[in-house]
Amino acid sequence: MGPHPAVAAIRLAVRRVLHDVLTDLTGHSGIPGRRTPEGAAPLVLVACSGGADSMALASALAFEAPKLGIRAGGITVDHGLQPGSDLRAAEVVTRMTALRLDPVESVAVRVGRDGGPEAAARDARYAAMDEAADRLGAAAVLLGHTRDDQAETVLLGLARGSGIRSLSGMAEVSGGPGRTRRYRRPFLHIDRQTARKACMVQSLPVWDDPHNIDPAYTRSRLRHEGLPALEKALGKGVVEALARTAQLSRDDADALDAWAADAERGVRDADGRLECAKLYALPPAVRRRVLRRAVVAAGSPAGSLFARHIEEVDRLITGWRGQGAINLPGRVEAQRQGGRLVIRQG
To answer: Are 266 and 278 in contact (CB under 8 A)?
Structure first.
């Protein structure tokens, strides 16, 4: 008799991702015992909070990795935002160790205030995971985001009035510093209940973060009030539809981003400065992407840069009336000077 359907689903999702990691490393599909070009068995980490999604992911990684000659480890991040968070992190380390993950560690971070509490915690968490992955030499870090998380991300993008890139939600594969394919999200096509069921049938203890039901957090309100209201008004299937929208939006955004990357080379002068007349000739969707790329390259944090910021910069091109410099996140400013757009850190 095979494993429970929920367990089978999460293991299959992880197996596929591990095969992709091996392909990236070696140029071959996953073969048991496959080594990296340096001769060492590759290490894949799971980011585990102790919740149902990440515990299901940790369990599946521990089961599937040895079959492919992959070392499986884990990391948990202690944000220090709740009393006893250090004890909770130590407990998660114990649970991952019990799954025979190795290496396993807890990393404490200091959460700042930039961008609000949720964004600040996310920034601190990813910085810690990047540092650990670099230090341990990990080939990839697996994240337990589910289809439900994807739907919430799309709705948050809609609420902010963001562009199509925000509506594309989270990518199945995304990067860290110098690593374009570091983070993998195997569960974006799996719903939250499947992950919880997989933990239950395997008797895996899980921890439900009280922040996930705290109405002070936007995502929590959306999860417990907004999405249920939408399903009541529109019927079941809202989460699946939003996740599908994310994938369609990502395909469109990827194509436009590639167009913008090519177009950027043609709108700079011999000194590398952006020429306003050539920018004006571009389609608006492409021009705004060129501007965003330039602003981020100047030092503006991508996570703090919203559509309204780029719209203000775009007006220096399309609605020029002698206005002054535009202040942007990261102490970056954009200014029109002599038919050129100058973007730099102040």
So the answer is: yes
Q: What is the pTM of this model?
A: 0.83
Q: How far apart, in whole angstroms, are the C-alpha atoms of residue 79 and residue 278?
A: 46
Please report where in the chains the tokens 């700042």 appear, as a residue: 112
CB 125, CB 77: distance < 8 Å: yes
Task: Kindly report the three-state secondary structure assignment for every residue of the chain.
Answer: CCCCHHHHHHHHHHHHHHHHHHHHHHCCCCCCCCCCCCCCCCEEEEECCCCHHHHHHHHHHHHHHHHHCCEEEEEEEECCCCCCHHHHHHHHHHHHHHCCCCCEEEEECCCCCCCCHHHHHHHHHHHHHHHHHHHHCCCEEECCCCHHHHHHHHHHHHHCCCCHHHHCCCCCEEEECCEEEEEECCCCCCCHHHHHHHHHHCCCCCCCCHHHHCCCCHHHHHHHHHHHHHHHHHCCCHHHHHHHHHHHHHHHHHHHHHHHHHHHHHCECCCCCEEHHHHHCCCHHHHHHHHHHHHHHCCCCHHHCCHHHHHHHHHHHHCCCCCCCEEECCCEEEEEECCEEEEEEC
Question: Cβ neighbours of residue 221 under 8 Å, at least 6 residues apart?
Answer: 215
pLDDT (tens digit, 0 to 9) for every residue of the chain, 346 residues total? 789 999 999 999 999 999 999 999 887 554 444 455 456 799 999 999 999 999 999 999 999 999 999 999 999 998 876 777 889 999 999 999 999 999 999 998 887 776 666 778 888 899 999 999 999 999 999 999 999 999 999 998 888 776 788 789 999 999 866 677 899 999 999 999 999 999 999 999 998 877 777 787 788 899 989 999 999 999 889 999 999 999 999 999 999 999 999 999 999 999 889 999 999 999 999 999 999 999 999 999 877 788 889 999 999 999 999 889 999 999 999 999 999 999 999 7
What is d(CA 146, CA 192) in angstroms, rounded to the nearest whole number?
Answer: 6
